[in-house]
Amino acid sequence: MNRQRSFIGFIVAGAIALLVIAIAGFYWFFAKSPANLTASTGQPSATIFVSKLSPVMVSLLTNPDRLQALEGEGELSKLKTSLFAKSGIDYKEDVQPWLGDEITLAITTLDIDRDQENGQQPGYLLALATKQPEKSREFVELLFSKRALAGANLAVEQYKGVKLIYDNQEVSTEEKISNRSIERSRTTSWKQATRSVPQESTKFKIQNYLAGAAVGEGFVLFANDPKVLRDAINNVQAPDLNLTSSLEYQKATKQLSKGSLAVAFLNLPIVAKWQGLELPQSYDSEIISLASNPKGLLAETSFLTSSEIVSPSAPLSKPVGALKYVPASAGLAISGSNLSNLGNSDLARLWRQATATIYGSEEDVVSRFAKPLADVQKKWGINLPEDIFSWVQGEYAIALLPAKEQTIPDWIFVVEKSQSVEKGVARLDAIASSNGLSINLLTLPQQKISAWTELTTATKKSDVKEGTSFSIETKVRGLHTTLGNYEIFTSDLETMDEILTAKDNSLIDNPKFQDSIAAIHQPNQGYIYLDWTKSQNLLERQVPILKLVEVLGKPFFDNLRSLTVSSYGNDTGALKGGVFFQFNNL
Prior knowledge:
The protein is α+β, with helices and mostly antiparallel strands and 586 residues long. The protein contains 18 helices and 21 strands. It has a 21-stranded antiparallel beta sheet, sandwiched between helices.
């Protein structure tokens, strides 16, 4: 029996939307009262109901009503209205009094009946924490009574001391046989139970199946099939079956920061099987968390594996000095040490694994971001890993600066001086000469500059009858100079001049940048800093789908100032990193 569309829409869509909007909307709350938004435990308690074979579990660990600062834009009110619009339920009267500090949504199984012939129907479980058990039980009764008035054929079942209520549906012969031993009572008095329900509140049509139960004193459960509820109860009574007892989950939760406000756990091999993904490495699980910060939000993720992860570069205890030569006007800055091992760095591994988990293939996404680098290689006739990255074994900083009158940004490349760097510069000079460029010495604010230049001819109409006149123009293709212990490369004279004349206005001295890196754990493998307002247009050109994402997360992106990415952690069995989101007005 195929029940691909069986889970009630307002539960699944509403729960997911609530989590997404809540996460995006944390900005609004922090701007007004960051101290009041706290998580009760930092870890979800509903894991006792979730199978250890669950592919995905997502939890919001704070009451959604604490996000009322969203009301300035109306998102939360709209969500509540749409969530219960067709159910005849009033959120403020029927849900708000008892809803606690946790909402957990899990995919419990890839196929409820394990019958491949009728297609896959995942099992969905929604767990809502309750602070008033009696009122939450009344809510379950009320919800199903309204469904009965709307025409649903309901069933009531006592299963291991828990009352289950669900939409009755045709079941297979196998299910009938397996359920014969269960003591079941069909309700015969739903009309009596619902006489007090106003008729005008029942004008909606049953389109999806729903099963619900109030379990103990702590949770209300909803699912898309009664079998999912029975399995959830079994998981509580047989602890070895639930996610809490999973060694993989226990190892993952050790990576969580204190006071996490939202948590997601992914069993990667099962996720890969479910979505048909090809994950690049043998990571067993991933855990994602979101925590508050007075300056913004910190999202962390950890990929866990049973094999040992060895970082090719020593961690950095402070930002690299190369950043002092990156102007504060930079839209994108990447800093760290040892570019020769870039492909095997923790940050590169984290990027590949994260993009492959989200998109199913690391190549598709990376190729979009790597296009500007590919263009540079083609234009200069160089191989970046061999001709440049291989000789950068010390500190480095790479930056892009938005150009006012062109779509291609200006660039800066800063490397710590060493013997290998001197040889690398000589190699670049040789490559420039082989490409027909001249090497000229210039003086810019009393600083000697080496420039790779190209002579070109320009024509213009002449008033003289003899014909056209010609002029010779010199185009600068790149420059480099030495400042202190660093060699600095730029794309043009204007950028080099900005570096030389604005030494007191560097990125590393910028208070906004300092705030963003202060939230990142140290030591780490360096930073990727993105100023959203300065880089938005460039990113949209490289990743067109980003425009759609911005529309869906408009409150978030409208107020996003910057984001900072880093990789860190000393656990050899985990690849850990974080993204810090900084917002305007914070």
